[in-house]
Protein backbone atom coordinates (compact mmCIF):
# COMPACT_ATOMS: atom_id res chain seq x y z
CA UNK A 1 0.00 0.00 0.00
CA UNK A 2 1.36 3.40 -1.00
CA UNK A 3 1.91 6.47 1.13
CA UNK A 4 -0.21 8.57 -1.25
CA UNK A 5 -3.50 8.04 -3.05
CA UNK A 6 -1.84 7.60 -6.44
CA UNK A 7 -3.66 4.70 -8.10
CA UNK A 8 -6.65 5.74 -10.24
CA UNK A 9 -9.37 3.41 -11.48
CA UNK A 10 -11.64 4.66 -14.27
CA UNK A 11 -14.83 2.82 -15.19
CA UNK A 12 -17.08 4.02 -18.03
CA UNK A 13 -20.70 3.99 -16.82
CA UNK A 14 -22.99 1.32 -18.36
CA UNK A 15 -20.61 1.51 -21.30
CA UNK A 16 -22.31 -0.45 -24.11
CA UNK A 17 -25.74 0.93 -23.26
CA UNK A 18 -24.38 4.46 -22.91
CA UNK A 19 -22.82 4.29 -26.39
CA UNK A 20 -26.16 3.14 -27.80
CA UNK A 21 -28.00 6.01 -26.09
CA UNK A 22 -25.42 8.47 -27.35
CA UNK A 23 -25.74 7.26 -30.95
CA UNK A 24 -29.54 6.79 -30.87
CA UNK A 25 -31.21 10.02 -29.69
CA UNK A 26 -34.64 8.38 -29.33
CA UNK A 27 -33.23 6.08 -26.60
CA UNK A 28 -31.75 8.76 -24.36
CA UNK A 29 -33.21 8.57 -20.87
CA UNK A 30 -34.96 5.28 -21.65
CA UNK A 31 -34.20 1.67 -20.60
CA UNK A 32 -31.66 0.03 -22.91
CA UNK A 33 -30.36 -3.53 -22.70
CA UNK A 34 -27.41 -4.68 -24.82
CA UNK A 35 -26.62 -8.34 -25.36
CA UNK A 36 -28.16 -11.38 -26.98
CA UNK A 37 -31.71 -10.61 -28.09
CA UNK A 38 -32.90 -14.18 -28.70
CA UNK A 39 -34.23 -16.77 -26.31
CA UNK A 40 -30.67 -17.84 -25.53
CA UNK A 41 -29.38 -14.32 -25.04
CA UNK A 42 -27.51 -12.95 -22.05
CA UNK A 43 -27.41 -9.31 -20.93
CA UNK A 44 -24.01 -7.70 -21.48
CA UNK A 45 -24.91 -4.24 -20.14
CA UNK A 46 -28.08 -2.52 -18.96
CA UNK A 47 -28.57 1.23 -18.80
CA UNK A 48 -29.27 2.75 -15.40
CA UNK A 49 -32.88 3.26 -16.46
CA UNK A 50 -33.16 -0.52 -16.98
CA UNK A 51 -31.32 -1.33 -13.75
CA UNK A 52 -34.14 0.31 -11.80
CA UNK A 53 -36.26 -2.66 -12.87
CA UNK A 54 -33.71 -5.20 -11.66
CA UNK A 55 -32.03 -5.86 -15.02
CA UNK A 56 -28.31 -6.59 -14.63
CA UNK A 57 -25.33 -8.00 -16.50
CA UNK A 58 -25.17 -11.79 -16.99
CA UNK A 59 -28.96 -12.12 -16.55
CA UNK A 60 -30.76 -14.10 -19.24
CA UNK A 61 -32.45 -11.89 -21.82
CA UNK A 62 -35.65 -13.81 -21.17
CA UNK A 63 -35.67 -12.70 -17.53
CA UNK A 64 -34.63 -9.16 -18.47
CA UNK A 65 -37.63 -8.92 -20.82
CA UNK A 66 -39.96 -10.08 -18.07
CA UNK A 67 -38.59 -7.44 -15.68
CA UNK A 68 -38.48 -4.57 -18.16
CA UNK A 69 -40.55 -5.42 -21.25
CA UNK A 70 -40.57 -1.81 -22.49
CA UNK A 71 -36.75 -1.62 -22.73
CA UNK A 72 -34.94 -1.44 -26.06
CA UNK A 73 -33.13 -4.77 -26.50
CA UNK A 74 -30.18 -4.36 -28.84
CA UNK A 75 -27.35 -6.51 -30.15
CA UNK A 76 -23.87 -5.13 -29.66
CA UNK A 77 -21.96 -2.93 -32.11
CA UNK A 78 -18.35 -3.72 -31.33
CA UNK A 79 -16.93 -1.16 -33.74
CA UNK A 80 -18.65 1.67 -31.83
CA UNK A 81 -17.49 0.41 -28.44
CA UNK A 82 -13.95 -0.12 -29.72
CA UNK A 83 -13.78 3.40 -31.13
CA UNK A 84 -15.00 4.98 -27.88
CA UNK A 85 -12.60 2.85 -25.85
CA UNK A 86 -9.68 3.87 -28.07
CA UNK A 87 -10.41 7.52 -27.36
CA UNK A 88 -10.57 6.98 -23.59
CA UNK A 89 -7.45 4.82 -23.41
CA UNK A 90 -5.60 7.44 -25.46
CA UNK A 91 -6.56 10.12 -22.93
CA UNK A 92 -5.34 7.92 -20.07
CA UNK A 93 -2.01 7.17 -21.78
CA UNK A 94 -1.53 10.87 -22.49
CA UNK A 95 -1.90 11.46 -18.76
CA UNK A 96 0.47 8.69 -17.60
CA UNK A 97 2.67 6.11 -19.34
CA UNK A 98 1.54 3.52 -16.80
CA UNK A 99 -2.00 2.49 -17.83
CA UNK A 100 -3.36 -1.01 -17.29
CA UNK A 101 -6.53 -1.66 -19.32
CA UNK A 102 -8.79 -4.29 -17.78
CA UNK A 103 -11.39 -4.26 -20.56
CA UNK A 104 -12.79 -1.86 -23.14
CA UNK A 105 -14.39 0.26 -20.43
CA UNK A 106 -12.07 0.28 -17.44
CA UNK A 107 -8.40 0.75 -16.58
CA UNK A 108 -5.95 1.53 -13.78
CA UNK A 109 -3.65 4.54 -14.06
CA UNK A 110 -0.50 5.10 -11.98
CA UNK A 111 -0.49 8.78 -11.02
CA UNK A 112 3.08 8.59 -9.72
CA UNK A 113 4.12 8.66 -13.40
CA UNK A 114 1.67 11.42 -14.39
CA UNK A 115 4.02 14.34 -13.70
CA UNK A 116 1.73 15.99 -11.14
CA UNK A 117 3.24 18.68 -8.88
CA UNK A 118 2.43 16.49 -5.86
CA UNK A 119 0.21 13.56 -4.91
CA UNK A 120 -1.82 15.20 -2.16
CA UNK A 121 -5.57 14.63 -2.12
CA UNK A 122 -6.57 18.06 -3.56
CA UNK A 123 -4.12 17.67 -6.43
CA UNK A 124 -5.22 14.18 -7.51
CA UNK A 125 -8.87 15.15 -7.05
CA UNK A 126 -8.51 18.12 -9.40
CA UNK A 127 -6.63 15.94 -11.91
CA UNK A 128 -9.37 13.29 -11.86
CA UNK A 129 -12.12 15.86 -12.31
CA UNK A 130 -10.36 17.33 -15.32
CA UNK A 131 -9.81 13.82 -16.74
CA UNK A 132 -13.52 12.99 -16.44
CA UNK A 133 -14.41 16.21 -18.25
CA UNK A 134 -11.99 15.36 -21.08
CA UNK A 135 -13.55 11.90 -21.39
CA UNK A 136 -17.02 13.42 -21.62
CA UNK A 137 -15.93 15.96 -24.23
CA UNK A 138 -13.89 13.62 -26.42
CA UNK A 139 -16.48 10.80 -26.42
CA UNK A 140 -19.38 13.19 -27.03
CA UNK A 141 -21.13 12.63 -23.73
CA UNK A 142 -19.99 9.35 -22.16
CA UNK A 143 -19.49 9.54 -18.40
CA UNK A 144 -16.91 7.81 -16.24
CA UNK A 145 -16.77 7.01 -12.55
CA UNK A 146 -13.33 7.36 -10.99
CA UNK A 147 -11.83 6.10 -7.75
CA UNK A 148 -8.41 6.99 -6.39
CA UNK A 149 -6.63 5.25 -3.54
CA UNK A 150 -3.39 3.91 -2.18
CA UNK A 151 -3.78 0.58 -4.03
CA UNK A 152 -5.59 -1.05 -6.90
CA UNK A 153 -8.08 -2.62 -4.49
CA UNK A 154 -9.01 0.64 -2.83
CA UNK A 155 -9.20 2.53 -6.14
CA UNK A 156 -11.54 -0.11 -7.59
CA UNK A 157 -13.78 -0.03 -4.53
CA UNK A 158 -13.84 3.78 -4.62
CA UNK A 159 -14.92 3.94 -8.28
CA UNK A 160 -18.05 1.92 -7.43
CA UNK A 161 -19.16 4.13 -4.54
CA UNK A 162 -20.75 7.03 -6.40
CA UNK A 163 -21.93 5.64 -9.74
CA UNK A 164 -22.78 6.90 -12.25
CA UNK A 165 -20.55 9.87 -13.06
CA UNK A 166 -18.88 9.88 -9.65
CA UNK A 167 -15.48 10.68 -8.19
CA UNK A 168 -14.26 9.31 -4.85
CA UNK A 169 -10.76 9.79 -3.44
CA UNK A 170 -9.86 7.68 -0.40
CA UNK A 171 -7.36 9.59 1.71
CA UNK A 172 -4.35 7.60 2.97
CA UNK A 173 -5.02 6.14 6.40
CA UNK A 174 -8.80 5.91 5.97
CA UNK A 175 -8.91 2.67 3.97
CA UNK A 176 -9.96 0.32 6.77
CA UNK A 177 -12.54 2.77 8.05
CA UNK A 178 -14.07 2.70 4.57
CA UNK A 179 -13.96 -1.08 4.19
CA UNK A 180 -15.12 -2.33 7.58
CA UNK A 181 -18.88 -1.78 7.16
CA UNK A 182 -18.91 -3.27 3.66
CA UNK A 183 -20.10 -6.76 2.77
CA UNK A 184 -17.32 -9.29 2.22
CA UNK A 185 -18.29 -9.58 -1.45
CA UNK A 186 -16.57 -6.22 -2.06
CA UNK A 187 -13.25 -8.10 -1.94
CA UNK A 188 -12.07 -9.43 -5.33
CA UNK A 189 -12.49 -13.18 -5.67
CA UNK A 190 -15.23 -13.45 -3.06
CA UNK A 191 -18.03 -14.96 -5.10
CA UNK A 192 -21.21 -16.77 -4.06
CA UNK A 193 -19.45 -19.94 -2.90
CA UNK A 194 -16.97 -18.08 -0.68
CA UNK A 195 -19.72 -15.77 0.60
CA UNK A 196 -21.72 -18.80 1.71
CA UNK A 197 -18.73 -20.41 3.44
CA UNK A 198 -18.00 -17.19 5.29
CA UNK A 199 -21.68 -16.69 6.17
CA UNK A 200 -21.80 -20.10 7.78
CA UNK A 201 -18.86 -19.04 9.92
CA UNK A 202 -20.67 -15.84 10.95
CA UNK A 203 -18.57 -13.59 8.69
CA UNK A 204 -20.65 -11.01 6.82
CA UNK A 205 -18.70 -7.75 6.72
CA UNK A 206 -15.08 -6.82 6.12
CA UNK A 207 -14.90 -5.97 9.83
CA UNK A 208 -15.96 -9.54 10.65
CA UNK A 209 -13.32 -10.82 8.25
CA UNK A 210 -10.63 -8.64 9.78
CA UNK A 211 -11.28 -10.22 13.18
CA UNK A 212 -10.59 -13.76 11.89
CA UNK A 213 -7.10 -15.23 12.18
CA UNK A 214 -5.09 -16.27 9.16
CA UNK A 215 -5.20 -19.90 10.31
CA UNK A 216 -9.00 -19.86 10.48
CA UNK A 217 -9.33 -18.27 7.03
CA UNK A 218 -7.00 -20.87 5.53
CA UNK A 219 -9.13 -23.58 7.09
CA UNK A 220 -12.32 -22.03 5.68
CA UNK A 221 -11.28 -21.23 2.11
CA UNK A 222 -7.83 -22.71 1.50
CA UNK A 223 -4.29 -21.44 1.74
CA UNK A 224 -3.98 -19.12 -1.26
CA UNK A 225 -7.47 -17.65 -1.01
CA UNK A 226 -7.29 -17.35 2.77
CA UNK A 227 -4.00 -15.48 2.66
CA UNK A 228 -5.40 -13.09 0.08
CA UNK A 229 -8.54 -12.38 2.10
CA UNK A 230 -6.48 -11.83 5.25
CA UNK A 231 -4.42 -9.15 3.51
CA UNK A 232 -7.24 -7.39 1.66
CA UNK A 233 -9.42 -7.23 4.78
CA UNK A 234 -6.62 -5.03 6.15
CA UNK A 235 -6.40 -3.01 2.90
CA UNK A 236 -2.99 -4.54 2.16
CA UNK A 237 -2.43 -4.64 -1.59
CA UNK A 238 0.95 -4.00 -3.22
CA UNK A 239 0.08 -4.90 -6.82
CA UNK A 240 1.63 -2.54 -9.35
CA UNK A 241 -0.04 -0.97 -12.38
CA UNK A 242 1.12 -3.13 -15.29
CA UNK A 243 0.94 -1.30 -18.65
CA UNK A 244 1.35 -4.52 -20.64
CA UNK A 245 -1.05 -7.13 -19.34
CA UNK A 246 -0.15 -10.64 -20.47
CA UNK A 247 -2.77 -12.84 -22.05
CA UNK A 248 -4.09 -15.04 -19.26
CA UNK A 249 -6.11 -17.49 -21.33
CA UNK A 250 -7.34 -18.32 -24.82
CA UNK A 251 -10.87 -19.62 -25.28
CA UNK A 252 -13.73 -20.28 -27.69
CA UNK A 253 -17.39 -20.71 -26.86
CA UNK A 254 -20.81 -20.74 -28.49
CA UNK A 255 -24.40 -20.19 -27.39
CA UNK A 256 -26.95 -22.26 -29.28
CA UNK A 257 -30.50 -21.57 -30.41
CA UNK A 258 -31.84 -24.90 -29.17
CA UNK A 259 -30.80 -27.01 -26.20
CA UNK A 260 -28.11 -29.54 -27.05
CA UNK A 261 -28.97 -33.03 -25.79
CA UNK A 262 -26.90 -35.27 -28.08
CA UNK A 263 -23.64 -36.06 -26.29
CA UNK A 264 -21.86 -36.96 -29.56
CA UNK A 265 -22.79 -33.57 -31.00
CA UNK A 266 -21.46 -31.81 -27.89
CA UNK A 267 -18.18 -33.67 -28.24
CA UNK A 268 -17.92 -32.60 -31.88
CA UNK A 269 -18.51 -28.98 -30.91
CA UNK A 270 -15.88 -29.15 -28.16
CA UNK A 271 -13.45 -30.68 -30.64
CA UNK A 272 -14.03 -27.84 -33.10
CA UNK A 273 -13.58 -25.25 -30.35
CA UNK A 274 -10.39 -26.97 -29.16
CA UNK A 275 -8.96 -26.69 -32.69
CA UNK A 276 -9.86 -22.99 -32.77
CA UNK A 277 -8.11 -22.44 -29.44
CA UNK A 278 -5.04 -24.42 -30.57
CA UNK A 279 -4.82 -22.40 -33.78
CA UNK A 280 -4.91 -19.13 -31.83
CA UNK A 281 -2.29 -20.41 -29.39
CA UNK A 282 -0.02 -21.42 -32.25
CA UNK A 283 -0.49 -18.06 -34.00
CA UNK A 284 0.57 -16.23 -30.82
CA UNK A 285 3.46 -18.59 -30.12
CA UNK A 286 1.84 -19.77 -26.88
CA UNK A 287 0.96 -23.02 -25.17
CA UNK A 288 -0.94 -23.81 -21.98
CA UNK A 289 -1.17 -26.32 -19.15
CA UNK A 290 -4.77 -25.98 -17.93
CA UNK A 291 -7.75 -26.95 -20.08
CA UNK A 292 -11.18 -25.74 -18.95
CA UNK A 293 -14.65 -26.35 -20.30
CA UNK A 294 -17.63 -24.09 -19.66
CA UNK A 295 -21.09 -25.61 -19.81
CA UNK A 296 -24.30 -23.61 -19.32
CA UNK A 297 -27.27 -25.89 -18.72
CA UNK A 298 -30.88 -25.41 -19.80
CA UNK A 299 -31.76 -23.82 -16.43
CA UNK A 300 -28.91 -21.27 -16.83
CA UNK A 301 -26.67 -23.02 -14.30
CA UNK A 302 -23.06 -22.56 -15.43
CA UNK A 303 -20.48 -25.26 -14.75
CA UNK A 304 -16.71 -25.02 -15.18
CA UNK A 305 -14.39 -28.02 -15.07
CA UNK A 306 -10.60 -27.98 -15.46
CA UNK A 307 -7.66 -30.31 -15.70
CA UNK A 308 -3.95 -29.45 -15.68
CA UNK A 309 -1.16 -31.08 -17.67
CA UNK A 310 2.37 -31.58 -16.31
CA UNK A 311 3.71 -29.45 -19.19
CA UNK A 312 2.14 -26.95 -21.61
CA UNK A 313 0.70 -27.92 -24.99
CA UNK A 314 -0.63 -26.25 -28.13
CA UNK A 315 -2.00 -29.46 -29.62
CA UNK A 316 -5.62 -29.28 -30.72
CA UNK A 317 -5.93 -33.03 -30.36
CA UNK A 318 -4.71 -32.98 -26.76
CA UNK A 319 -6.95 -30.05 -25.82
CA UNK A 320 -9.95 -31.74 -27.46
CA UNK A 321 -9.32 -35.06 -25.72
CA UNK A 322 -9.11 -33.41 -22.32
CA UNK A 323 -12.20 -31.29 -22.99
CA UNK A 324 -14.24 -34.34 -23.96
CA UNK A 325 -13.05 -36.13 -20.84
CA UNK A 326 -14.21 -33.22 -18.67
CA UNK A 327 -17.61 -33.25 -20.36
CA UNK A 328 -18.00 -36.95 -19.63
CA UNK A 329 -18.19 -36.21 -15.90
CA UNK A 330 -21.15 -33.84 -16.25
CA UNK A 331 -24.87 -34.59 -16.35
CA UNK A 332 -26.13 -32.80 -19.45
CA UNK A 333 -29.31 -34.81 -19.90
CA UNK A 334 -31.52 -31.77 -19.34
CA UNK A 335 -29.95 -29.89 -22.23
CA UNK A 336 -27.06 -27.48 -22.79
CA UNK A 337 -27.33 -23.94 -24.14
CA UNK A 338 -23.63 -22.93 -24.14
CA UNK A 339 -20.35 -24.79 -24.57
CA UNK A 340 -16.83 -23.45 -24.38
CA UNK A 341 -13.20 -24.54 -24.23
CA UNK A 342 -10.34 -22.50 -22.79
CA UNK A 343 -6.64 -22.93 -22.11
CA UNK A 344 -4.78 -21.06 -19.35
CA UNK A 345 -1.47 -21.35 -17.52
CA UNK A 346 0.14 -20.00 -20.66
CA UNK A 347 3.79 -20.29 -21.65
CA UNK A 348 5.85 -19.52 -24.74
CA UNK A 349 7.26 -23.04 -25.09
CA UNK A 350 6.09 -26.67 -25.23
CA UNK A 351 7.81 -29.68 -23.70
CA UNK A 352 8.71 -31.14 -27.08
CA UNK A 353 10.71 -28.00 -27.92
CA UNK A 354 13.33 -29.11 -25.39
CA UNK A 355 14.02 -32.36 -27.19
CA UNK A 356 13.40 -31.54 -30.83
CA UNK A 357 10.37 -31.89 -33.05
CA UNK A 358 7.80 -34.58 -32.37
CA UNK A 359 4.79 -35.58 -34.39
CA UNK A 360 1.45 -34.09 -33.41
CA UNK A 361 -1.15 -36.48 -32.09
CA UNK A 362 -3.66 -37.01 -34.90
CA UNK A 363 -7.29 -36.08 -34.23
CA UNK A 364 -9.79 -37.76 -36.57
CA UNK A 365 -11.83 -35.29 -38.59
CA UNK A 366 -15.39 -35.07 -37.30
CA UNK A 367 -18.25 -34.03 -39.58
CA UNK A 368 -19.13 -30.36 -39.25
CA UNK A 369 -22.13 -30.12 -36.87
CA UNK A 370 -25.21 -28.68 -38.56
CA UNK A 371 -26.08 -26.24 -35.81
CA UNK A 372 -26.30 -22.49 -35.61
CA UNK A 373 -24.85 -20.42 -32.81
CA UNK A 374 -26.93 -17.44 -31.72
CA UNK A 375 -24.21 -14.99 -32.78
CA UNK A 376 -24.13 -16.52 -36.28
CA UNK A 377 -27.77 -15.82 -37.11
CA UNK A 378 -28.01 -13.85 -40.38
CA UNK A 379 -30.34 -10.98 -41.06
CA UNK A 380 -31.21 -7.68 -39.48
CA UNK A 381 -30.42 -7.51 -35.76
CA UNK A 382 -31.96 -4.88 -33.45
CA UNK A 383 -29.55 -1.98 -33.00
CA UNK A 384 -27.59 -2.72 -36.18
CA UNK A 385 -26.35 0.26 -38.20
CA UNK A 386 -27.97 0.56 -41.62
CA UNK A 387 -28.17 3.05 -44.48
CA UNK A 388 -31.00 3.58 -46.96
CA UNK A 389 -30.34 4.97 -50.41
CA UNK A 390 -32.93 7.74 -49.94
CA UNK A 391 -33.40 8.11 -46.18
CA UNK A 392 -29.74 7.90 -45.17
CA UNK A 393 -28.34 6.34 -42.01
CA UNK A 394 -30.30 4.74 -39.21
CA UNK A 395 -30.56 1.63 -37.08
CA UNK A 396 -32.69 -1.50 -37.00
CA UNK A 397 -35.58 -1.02 -34.59
CA UNK A 398 -36.96 -4.50 -35.14
CA UNK A 399 -37.19 -7.29 -37.69
CA UNK A 400 -39.20 -10.41 -38.38
CA UNK A 401 -41.74 -12.04 -40.71
CA UNK A 402 -39.99 -10.61 -43.74
CA UNK A 403 -40.08 -7.00 -42.51
CA UNK A 404 -37.33 -4.78 -41.10
CA UNK A 405 -38.22 -1.57 -39.26
CA UNK A 406 -35.66 1.24 -39.17
CA UNK A 407 -35.42 4.44 -37.16
CA UNK A 408 -33.48 7.03 -39.13
CA UNK A 409 -31.24 8.99 -36.77
CA UNK A 410 -27.61 9.30 -35.72
CA UNK A 411 -25.76 10.80 -32.79
CA UNK A 412 -25.68 14.15 -34.64
CA UNK A 413 -29.42 14.32 -35.44
CA UNK A 414 -32.64 14.65 -33.46
CA UNK A 415 -34.79 11.57 -32.85
CA UNK A 416 -35.78 10.47 -36.34
CA UNK A 417 -38.68 8.91 -38.21
CA UNK A 418 -39.50 5.18 -38.31
CA UNK A 419 -40.04 3.32 -41.56
CA UNK A 420 -40.62 -0.36 -42.42
CA UNK A 421 -39.30 -2.23 -45.46
CA UNK A 422 -39.21 -5.73 -46.87
CA UNK A 423 -36.13 -7.44 -45.47
CA UNK A 424 -34.79 -7.90 -49.03
CA UNK A 425 -35.35 -4.27 -50.05
CA UNK A 426 -32.45 -3.45 -52.42
CA UNK A 427 -32.26 0.13 -51.14
CA UNK A 428 -31.46 -0.92 -47.55
CA UNK A 429 -27.90 -1.92 -46.62
CA UNK A 430 -25.78 -2.78 -43.62
CA UNK A 431 -23.46 0.09 -42.69
CA UNK A 432 -19.91 -0.03 -41.34
CA UNK A 433 -17.76 2.98 -40.37
CA UNK A 434 -14.96 1.92 -42.73
CA UNK A 435 -17.35 2.40 -45.65
CA UNK A 436 -17.69 6.10 -44.86
CA UNK A 437 -13.90 6.45 -44.47
CA UNK A 438 -13.14 4.66 -47.72
CA UNK A 439 -16.04 6.06 -49.71
CA UNK A 440 -16.99 2.51 -50.63
CA UNK A 441 -20.51 1.60 -51.73
CA UNK A 442 -22.81 0.23 -49.00
CA UNK A 443 -22.51 -3.42 -48.07
CA UNK A 444 -25.26 -5.57 -49.54
TrEMBL record:
An example molecular function term from Gene Ontology annotations: magnesium ion binding
EC number(s) from the headed UniProt entry: 2.7.7.7
Gene: dinB
Keywords assigned: Cytoplasm, DNA damage, DNA repair, DNA replication, DNA-binding, DNA-directed DNA polymerase, Magnesium, Metal-binding, Mutator protein, Nucleotidyltransferase, Transferase
Reactions catalysed: DNA(n) + a 2'-deoxyribonucleoside 5'-triphosphate = DNA(n+1) + diphosphate
Chain positions of site Substrate discrimination: 16
UniProt record similarity statement: Belongs to the DNA polymerase type-Y family.
Classification via PROSITE patterns: UMUC (PS50173)
Subunit-level organization: Monomer.
Name recorded for this polypeptide: DNA polymerase IV
Function description: Poorly processive, error-prone DNA polymerase involved in untargeted mutagenesis. Copies undamaged DNA at stalled replication forks, which arise in vivo from mismatched or misaligned primer ends. These misaligned primers can be extended by PolIV. Exhibits no 3'-5' exonuclease (proofreading) activity. May be involved in translesional synthesis, in conjunction with the beta clamp from PolIII.
Amino acid sequence: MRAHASVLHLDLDAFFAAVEQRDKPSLRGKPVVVGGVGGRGVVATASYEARKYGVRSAMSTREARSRCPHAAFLTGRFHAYRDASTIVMGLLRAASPLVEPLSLDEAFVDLEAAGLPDLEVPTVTAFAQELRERVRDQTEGLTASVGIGTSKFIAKVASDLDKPDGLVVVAPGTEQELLRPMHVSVIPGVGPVTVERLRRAGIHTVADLEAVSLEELVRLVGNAHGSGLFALARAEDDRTVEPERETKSVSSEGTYDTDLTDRALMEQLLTRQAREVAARLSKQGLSGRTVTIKVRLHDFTTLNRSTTLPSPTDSGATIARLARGLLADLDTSGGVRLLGVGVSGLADWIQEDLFGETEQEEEPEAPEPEIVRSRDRPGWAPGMDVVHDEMGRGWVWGAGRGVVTVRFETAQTPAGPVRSYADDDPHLHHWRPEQAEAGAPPEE
